[in-house]
Amino acid sequence: MQRAPTVSLLLAGLLGACASPSYVVLLHDADGGTGRVEVRGAKGTQVLTHANEGARLDGAKLPYAVSAERLQKDFGAAMAARPEPAEQFQFYFLTGSTTLTAASQALIPDIMAAVLRRPAVDISIIGHTDTVGSASSNRELALTRARAIADLLIAGGLKVVAISIESHGESNLKVQTPDETPEPLNRRVEITVR
Q1: DSSP 21
Q2: What domains does the chain contain, in order, with CATH numbers?
Q3: How many whole angstroms separate alpha carbon 53 and alpha carbon 28?
Q4: 106 Cβ partners below 8 Å, 6+ apart?
Q5: Per-residue pLDDT reduced to its tens digit, 41-90
Q6: How far apart are CA 76 and CA 142, in angstroms?
Q7: Rounded Cα distance, 91 and 174, in Å
Q8: What's the rounded Cα separation, in Å, for the pair 113 and 125?
Q9: Mean pLDDT of the chain
Q10: For residues 9 and 33, what is the distance between their CA atoms, to the nearest angstrom?
Q11: pLDDT at 12 over 90
């Protein structure tokens, strides 16, 4: 299982007249990294580069540390409502078939668990092949693999709000190879659960 890349979370607070001025806070992303945010306002520009660093929306004040207590008070409800980060899974196949490898078959419970953690599920399923065979037959095989995975998940009880199924065939290789090269890492279906 692999988490999809995420962007650092930025929270903006528009606080009432009796509270402090509106501000933004930069948080860690799901992988623990932190991005960079530039806040431009009528009174200046400030750059946030550290987690839990805030700046007023008018740009008048240098960036400042925002305590966990203040974050919870001002943004607790918004943070609690955040959806689960997207998760990515990759299934691998035996040459020229829709038969999963044993390791890939073992991933099915992980996908079902990822789905069950979400109240409204959006799944994308993209089929890929290696370069053995014609490009047109590989597009069809990749689509067949993607549909087989979708059918497998639906038969296992998957209920989704949105599902997209597509084929990249041999056009998006994980491992670059010449034509007619069998490569197990290219024979895959990538699934993203959001």
Answers
A1: P
A2: 2-80 (no CATH), 87-193 (3.30.1330.60)
A3: 10
A4: none
A5: 999 999 999 999 999 999 999 999 999 999 999 999 988 888 788 999 99
A6: 44
A7: 13
A8: 17
A9: 88
A10: 10
A11: no
